[in-house]
Amino acid sequence: MSTAGDLEQLRQRAFAIAYRMLGSVGDAEDVAQEALLRLHATTERIDSPAAFVSTVATRLAIDELRSARVRRETYVGEWLPEPLPTAAADRPTGADPFPEPGEHAELSDSLSLAFLVLLERLTPEQRAALLLHDVFDYSHEEVAEIIGKSPSASRQLASRARRQVEEERPRFSSSDERRRELADRFFDAIEEGELGGLEALLADDVVLRGDGGGKVPALARPLQGRARAAKALHNWAKVAKRLPPFVLERVEINGQPGAIGRLADGRVLNAFIIESDGERITAINSVVNPDKLDHLGEVADYASMLRETRGR
Description:
Strand order of the largest sheet: 1-4-5-6-7-2-3
Oligomer: single chain
Number of helices: 11
Low-confidence stretches: 88-104
Distance between the termini: 62 Å
Order of helices and strands: HHHEHHHHHHEEHEEEEH
Largest sheet: 7 strands, mixed
């Protein structure tokens, strides 16, 4: 009989795989729960519960991705993964809350929004093969058994996926401390409404992304370039000054410096995730789609608040 600790480790393993596959906290939680239920219900002899749970989680995620692709084709605006807090500001960064089957840098890097967005270009089977082999250290033979392919087919899937993402995959070679420093300066400027020096923090080719899902006004498409991003941020700051008072709760999100915007009563406005090369901020991601924030707490009616500011 598995102990509570054993079951939690299995749940974490299933969640770790499913979240990276799906980019959705809620869907990953459902997959992890279903994997544990199937483990409990099986009457077969299970030599490795971890392998069983990994197999079920991967196959469920592949099925979910096939249906999710249709939904994302009609998604309004930019699609970003659901923000996943991975550490508080006073905890060491780079920590993965789901470390199984072994803690190493690849696990944390594979949580980054930039990497998860790149995975969207892969087929479900390619995504599974790449993650299971390159991130979770499964052999090609083990991956083949999990996804129902031959070892040679599994190897080819992972190789093709790797080639597709490697050219554009960002590498965070700077220190965690330097990345946090840049993000803190950005968040300080937003909170204080003093954006005069903000442009100096931005890389020439910085990308600004917003995900409102058609439910909250957001950028229709990413903005690239320092001047364009700075102008958009200045315009947003003008609107923010007319909103009720809010704070930016500094947290690590998806292994990177981030913040959760909260009203005084704790309701969630948005989540920021900041990417940098150690010298300048290279990407600013803001998730305001309420469906992607409810795992962070009660969500404010941001859309209504924005309408009220326009009325005033």
